[in-house]
Write a structure and sequence with these properties.
Blueprint (H helix, E strand, L loop, with lengths): L3 H30 L9 H25 L6 H16 L4 H20 L3 H22 L5 H17 L11 H4 L3 H10 L11 H20 L4 H10 L4 H4 L8 H20 L5 H11 L5 H18 L4 H18 L1 H11 L6 H8 L5 H18 L11 H13 L14 H10 L13 H16 L3 H23 L6 H4 L4 H13 L3 H24 L5 H6 L5 H14 L8 E3 L19 E3 L10 H4 L6 E5 L11 E5 L12 E5 L10 E10 L2 E10 L3 E7 L6 E6 L4 E6 L4 E7 L4 E10 L11 E5 L1
Helix pairs in contact: 1-2, 1-3, 2-3, 2-8, 2-9, 2-12, 2-13, 5-9, 5-10, 6-8, 9-10, 9-12, 9-24, 10-24, 12-13, 13-15, 14-22, 18-19, 18-22, 19-20, 21-22, 21-24, 22-24
Length: 763
Amino acid sequence: MKHFRPVVNDLSAVALLLVNALVVAVAAWLLVAGTVGEWRSCLEPVLAWGLACMALVAGAGSLLGIVGWLGPGGFFALHAAILAGLGWLQRGRWPAAREALVNVFQGWREFFSRRDAAAILGAVNLLVWLGLAALAALAHPVVYDALTYRLSRIALWLQDGRIAHYATDDARLNYMPVVPDLMMAWLLDVFPEGYRLTGLAQAAGGALLLLATAGLGRLTGLGRAAALGAAALLFGMTNVATQFTSVHTDLFTAGVLAAAICLWLAALRRGQGSLWGGVGAGLALGSKGTVFYFAPGALLWVVVLAWWHPLPWAAWRRTLLAGLVAVAVFAGPGFWRNGRSYGGLLGPADMVELHHGGKISARGHLDKLRLNLATFTAQLFDPNAEPWWWQKAASAAQRALADRLPADDPYIFQNFSRREWMHTIAGLTSPDADVASCGLLLPLFFAAGLATALARRRDAADGLVLLWGGGLGLFVLCLNGMVQWHPYILRFLALGAPWLAVGAAWWMENLPRGLRRAAWALAALTTVAAFGPAVMRTYQSGWPAVVQPARGTSYFVYGQWRAWSAGLEPAGLPRTVALPINRPLAAFCRIEGGGPVRLAHEPARTSGTAEEFLQGQTGWVIVQADRFLGREGRVQGRTWLYFGQDGRSPYSLAAYRRLAPGEEPEAMLYRALRTVQPHGVTDDLLVRSWSGVARLRLRNASAAAWNFSVLAADDRSEGPLAAGETREVTLRIPAEQVAQVLVVLARPDPATAAAAPTVELRP
């Protein structure tokens, strides 16, 4: 029964999540149905419906996080109350809402029943997205940023019932926008442990991105097939494709933003304001800080399009009011918490300076922009974002461009070397979701489209393509002009992916018939060639994140920390985690029976003993392994050593707790470095024993005999270790001091290739 119970619990949790999703969908449709009559396609209501669902989840999460009810079942209870309230308020409109929904589904059924090129492309996009969504649901959380702060804070929110600022050295848990994280919290709400399904938040954003790209294509003058072809081109952008199944937030933000702009422009052309365009803008601002870099380009679009399509103030008031309310709901609480905790809306001043650099002269700004654009261009040649027939040439070009970059300059983030990173990316054998490029083909096609539109300028579509180009250009300039360079910049380009794809598709559609077919064929082949490796070989996402998550160091460390933390006894004690920035804190949270988790600032190396640090603490305190090395006091301790060897690694841990009445401290192992020699191995151990005794267990699992010598400062032991034998060795070492112990294992027969015995410190 004990093996059957988790399955039942999982099925119950999934069922509750599905019911909650149905409640959210119905409530969102009641909000959307009143405006369906304004729309002229079956695409717009689906985009608005998606935004409404996200708004209900994020809004409910924000409210629950303020009042302290963010926890198991909190989302379901509030969403059910919202649905009941909407049902009562709109009790006379249910037939109209049902009819509107039937009409939308009828429109989509008619579209797919045509079986023309557009319907086939639509079906392909849908099937590919469904496959990616399935991978997102099954994938393990491999993205390092997610394991360090995103999932950590979600777990703490659900544990504590509120969105709070935590005492931690990793301020990202506090100041980062929260909307995508609230979507993930909703997905986790019904599960007691782990982080399953969190990738579905990105998949949902990806669905909006695909639909919005098709909608923007239609608004730019593309036919149905070409617009859906533009959406399909997103799968060929490696920096986009890898994120459909990862626990990033760029694709979520991009989908929300693109949907908002698509709905707003469609309404603008009808001479109307857009309620859901305003809501989407607020959701995007509450999703990721990169929206600030995109804002100047978006503002250019709004100003120019408003000039081209004048609206009465009443229509503008509707959009602006919805946007202001959405900003207040989805971004306002975060700004307020940041202002209260850090004195600035965007977070700690030192973190803002870290990402954007200090004050520099006008010449410095130009130098920064020049270097960042040069590096940005070099990174576009990422060979893993190209089809196989162009990868070798792209790698050579990237290396050549990298050689022109400085090895060091003042405009880089955390000492990232431009030149070294470009050479690293050029040498990668598989895609990396953090540094992947969009490839070269679409930017080239987009540039050709701009040139064509500039040369012709004969109709509104030409002007709109040029406007898209101006906005994307401002985005690239603002991004590269503001941030300290780091290799993750191309991931942020996902925000501009819809317009890049639409512009490329527009250029292909304006070619002569033969060239048009050849260009689309090349784009399709390139998309397939880039999409396959992105899904099958990127370690942070796709298929590897389902079947080989530990292939990435991030998940390996996370998994090992999690298993070690779960084994700290007695079970259920609170755990206080006091680690430096950029550590996978999610490993300690959401462990069934693992006890509550608290965060604390890392103790200074000049602080007192571990025993003193534990004063006022209950349960275990987890720090870096060498933090209290040699000055533990009388405590009970455990260590986890990175790859079982080095206690000075930033990934090695120590856990300490106060002694229970009558309990004695057990020996601790701080180092286990193994050196392989021609005739054997040597284990260099660093041991702390309070009793003055070190007990070692030597286990020879091989079929060959070995000899051993165990040496300490004042004692030694030696002898044979027969095949299959396990022997306990006891040595005297200085009491309450860190002592070195050497274990020398030698083969009696040098020709024997048997595996060396293992060495284990016993309590």
